[in-house]
Every structure is written in structure tokens, then in C-alpha cells.
Please model this.
Amino acid sequence: MISYNEKERIFHIYNKKISYYMHVNFEGAVETLYFGKFLPSLYNIDAIRKGDIDNNSSQYFDMNLEREFTHPDIYKEGIARNEISSHGGRDKRGAPIIISQKNGAFETDFRYFSFEIVEGLPVYSDIPYVRENGVKATTLRICYKERRRAVLVYENITILEDKDIVIKNFEIVNKSNEIVPITRAFSMQLDLPDNQYKIHHFPGRWAYEREHRVNDLVEGVQEVFSNKGRSSHEENPFVFLSENEATNTYGRVIGFNLVYSGNFMFRTYTDMLMGCHILYGIGDEDFRWMLNPKETFITPQAVIAYSEEGIDKMSQEFHSLIKEHIVPPEIDKIKKPLLFNSWEGCTFTFNTESMLSYVDDSTKIGSELFVLDDGWFGKRDDDTSGLGDWVLNENKINLQAVIDRCHKHGMKFGIWFEPEMVNPDSDLYRDYPQYALGDRKLPLTPHRHQFLLDFANQEVVDNIFHQMELILDKYPIDYIKWDNNRVTNEHFSNALDAEHQGEVYHRLMLGYYNLISRLRKKYPNIFFEGCASGGGRFDLGTLFYCPQIWASDETDPICRMFIQYNTSIGYPLSTIGSHVSNSKMTCYKTKAILALFGTYGLEMNPNVLTESEIEELCEIGDVYRKYHQEVIGNGTLYHLKSPQETNAMCMQSVSKDKSKSIVIYMNKFKEQQQYRFIKLKGLDEEKLYRNSLDNEVFSGAYYQEVGLNLSRKVLYEFDCELIILEEVGGEI
Ligand code: DGJ
Model:
């Protein structure tokens, strides 16, 4: 999995499918030689290295001898592909790490020092990480030393035995006796020898998260980033490059994601030789970490997936990584209960009686977990007050009675929190105004009438932990929806001195991770779902604690089909929080089929459903109970028709043993009859399957080569088909 050729100073990181080669040159730089499909050997590495240069090595001026020299190696700094570019010298493509020198200079130059190969993956206590989870993993740890300061950098590159994925990050260690300011601490650099790629990213806005945008990788710099203090609605940390000719099933694709929930920066730079220099990590806007002597700064892990077989193969690699190595492992073992959420049905307007009637009526549509959303605490009848006061509003709701009623029906009970926020109209703010983020000498920017709590201050995190403890110790709560409804504007902490204000954005994330991991430790049976005004924090950092995330506040199924389809390119369906809602668009059955291609849940006023609506919901509820976990939750997903590119959205999920498959086909605009053969994927060619569309039996090969036949039918606006295929015995 990792070998070192001592004579040629070459590392080879590999599994059966991929290879990553690098070379330690005589200048002490680590050159990236190759990243791609498995290659047993690189033969003559100078041929590759020379390809990068115009045959001259770099020159340097020796200050002692007062003469110019040429490096003996063919290495040309600033042009050769590197694992860590230097900063402030010849290399102008962008360094992944920048520190300040003692004299204030910015020059940063890390040179190779040593290496070790270790079994397993790094494990971190303060930040989320890729879990080993019983799979063979090997990590190359290259140690670099800064040329002027006593600062070391460890570059970790991990390869998993069974995935076309490498995981990279840096650890920066201050070996000196002085504080070292770090002004950039990205997680990785990857230099590719060409730029013939398109860049795919997922910008959006509230209620329209993750559009799939594709741009040419142009010359110069392109950045995909968030400076909102969270991974954001506006961009997502999942980004990928596809070879110009690549499709869903063909061509070279390289995907990137970051195990982090805060500001990020994905930056490509196409240099004069048309190589592509990629940097990825924590956003460096207003970032300055004062690293104390003997301390280490750990950058979040970047995950890189490589596919030779198009976009879907990359998606599947990310999906299995997330399911097996990111979300809490115990989640796999439980069958997720069918969730009912109160929010869209009544928002803040409820009392004990109305909530009890919600509980009762939700049972008619199959609810197994009843979630009371916002409005149960403090003074909270609208969004202008109450955040920060996690005390039950007894005048409004008898929580115990609601929980008892849930239990009487055999249902679990869940509740909503927004732990990182405070309303100025709250007891917490009145008592501790300094707990709000921002310099109070100036006007602060409210958003949804609320401020961010200063989670860079451990005292604030502890305060919220203790308040939540009181609720969680008193009431039997099985589920928490963890919301976060504003971006970070004034990123000033009243608890930090001037020197440390550059740490605020990252410290807010450390506070978030600290609180949620303490709660998960103390209440291991509580299931957490992430949320941030819908999908404003849909990222691998949050998924480490919350196995699912509410994908969007947009529950109109027509908009949702784009959001869910696009989100599922980077994230498995089992993580994409999706509910059947009140929305007036389409019938309940269509909304339910769509929600099935996500986590599936219900969110409406259950008191006003008609008999036929209840019937539709029960029908799909049965499908959920019978098939969801095996076929959708743990299945392999194929994207068959993109709603962005065609008049329909079509996805197919296949159970691991290939005995069952479920297809969704959702039409956009009315379409007259025409041939419509949907060629399926991932089935066993030899097996026979009965399909629920026409009840016929065909072989897997037939479905894949001829296709499911949806032809000759007029499809009306937003018509939606759910087709279930089940293996039947017998010979072809
Ligand atoms: C935003 C969430 O996305 C909604 O689902 C709901 O929980 C509200 N917040 C409650 O304030």
C-alpha cells in the first residue's frame, strides 16, 4: 500500500486501483510525480520531471560566497510539481502553509526532513476525521522542517485498501520557544500536469442549495469558497474536476471534499505551463493562528476521490466513504424510525392540546419518531426572542405529556435546539451580553433577529452544554435536530485579545465540535440531525456527528428534485434529510416518492389530511419500511437522468446483494408519447427481476441493455413513477 524506493527516493502510495507517486529531490522538496490509475512503476522519473521544466535548474545566490550558483538537480522551483510549495521565493503559485518569521518576514519554506509509514489513519480529539472503522489503511507521514524557524510540518497521506480515495492533511508543530503566527493553514496541495478539466461546484442560496455548476478550468485562479463562518448555502465543500470529455459513466474525474464545517477555500491555479495547482483547506480570509510553543495546529482532512469511469463512480466512492468512515458507525446498525416533524404544520403556533393531536394523527401516516421543532423553550412564539434560554416554556407546552403520548403510541420523541445562537431578547443575553460574538462598541448585524454566541469562548460552550444537560437529563429524548440559522458577520470575540482575533472563525468550529461531541458522549443513544436554515451546513464535518442533515427548507418537490439529485452527487441518500411536506405542488404520493430518495420523513399538519392523502402516504410508508434501509440507505446509487440537462430526473438505487432495486422517474414538463427506455445499472446480468411498472420479468442484462420501458405514454407535468425491481427465482 505504501513503498519507498530508497535509491531513487520515490514513495509509491497505492492500492489495486490508484497510484500516487512522489520523489524527494536533492533540494529537499517533495515533487509530485503522478496521481491516477494504478501504475506498477514509473520507470524513468526524470522523463516526468523534465516534462515540467525548460531544462534549466533553478539558480540561487549564495550570500556568503557572494556568487550565483545553479542547483545540481534538474529541479526547477516554482515550475516543478510539489507537495508543498514555498512562499515568498521563486514559487508564485500559492503555498498551502504560510507562517511569519521572527523578524516579521513572510517567507516560508518547508524542506523534507524524514518520513514514516504507519498503519491506520490519524485520530483527532478536537476536530472530525475519517474513521478507520476496521478497514486496512496506511498513512505516509512526511516530516518537513522550515528553513528558518523551528517549525515542523507533517504531511499525512492515507490510502484505504478498498477505496479509490486518498486522505491528506498537514499538522504544523511549533518546536520553538516563541509563538509562531500561521497566516495560512490549508490541508493539501495537489499539482496536476494538465488543465484539461471542467470544474464542478455547487453554489446556491437559502431554499435553493447546491445547483450543479460546471465551468471550464480557465487560466489563472479560480476559487470556490465560503467566508460565511459555515460551509454555507452559497457554495459547498464538495468540488470535482472532470476531464473535458467525461460523462457520468466515462472519463477521468477527481473529487475533493473537506472534513470541516466552517470557512473553506478550494483554489485552482493554472500556471504558464498549463499545469493545475490545487490548494484546499480552511479559508484564509482573516485567518491568523498564534501557535504556542510546543503546540500543534491540525488542519482538517481533505478527501480526494479518483475515478477512471466517470462521475458516478466518483460519487459512489464518496458515498461509501461517508457511510463507512464518516458518519457515526453505530448508526448503520439501527433501522431509522420514520420521522414526523412539527415545523411546517404549525411553526411556532402550538400548545399542549394541539401537539397531542399532532402526535395522535401522525400515527395514521406511520410516524415512528415525533419531533417537536422550534418554539418549546424560553419566550419563543416567533423568531424575535428566546434563543439562548433552553428552559421549557411550561405555559405553552407540557413536554412530559407529549412524550408520554408518543410512548403510548410506541413512538420515539425528538426535539429542536439551536445551540450556537442567542436573541438579544433573552435572559442569556441580558445576563451575559459579552457572550454574543462581535465588538459591542459598534452596531452588530442581526440576522433572523439573532446573534451568534461566542463559541470561541469555552465558558459560553459550557453554559449551553449545562443548559442542554438539564433538559436531556429530565426528559427521555431520542433525537435532536441541531439548527444554525445565521451566517457569521462580526467575527470578533470579546474573550480573546487583539493578537488572537484571527483565530475566531476556526475557534467557532472547535466550539461547535466540542459541544456536539460532549453531548454525543454523554447521550450516546441520541440521534443528531444537522440543519442550518435548511442545507447551509451540509458537509463532512457535520456528518461526523450527525448521520443526516436537513437538505433544504425548500420542500416544494419540483425545486427539491434538483436539490436532492445534485446533493446526491457528493453525499449518500441516507444523509439527505427529505420530508413529505405541506407544499401544494403535486399530490402527496409524488412528494413521498421523492422524499424516499433521501432519508424520508413527514412534515405537515396531520389534522387536515384527507382519507385519500392518508392512503397515499401509507402506501409509500410501507415501501419505506420494507425497502428503504436495504435498497436506498445502504444501496449503490446511479444517476440516470439529470433534471438540469433533461426533461426528467431519474435515479436508481441497487441493494448491495443486487437482489432489489428502486427507480424514481420524475417528469418536468408535459411530454407527448415517445420512446423512453431507461437503461438501468448495477444489476446482476444473470438474475431475473420482476418490475412493478408492468409486472414483467426480465434479466438484469435486458434492463441494462434494452431498458425499463416507459415509452408511448404521455407524461404530464411532474408525473412521477416509483419502480421496484425484485429478483425472482428461475432460469433465463
Ligand atoms: C430552519 C430549519 O431549516 C427549519 O426546518 C426549522 O427548524 C426552522 N429553522 C425553525 O426555526
The longest strand covers residues 180-192. The chain has a mean pLDDT of 96. The radius of gyration is 27 Å. Residues 343, 373-374, 416, 483, 485, 531, 533-534, 550, 553 surround DGJ (CB under 6 Å).
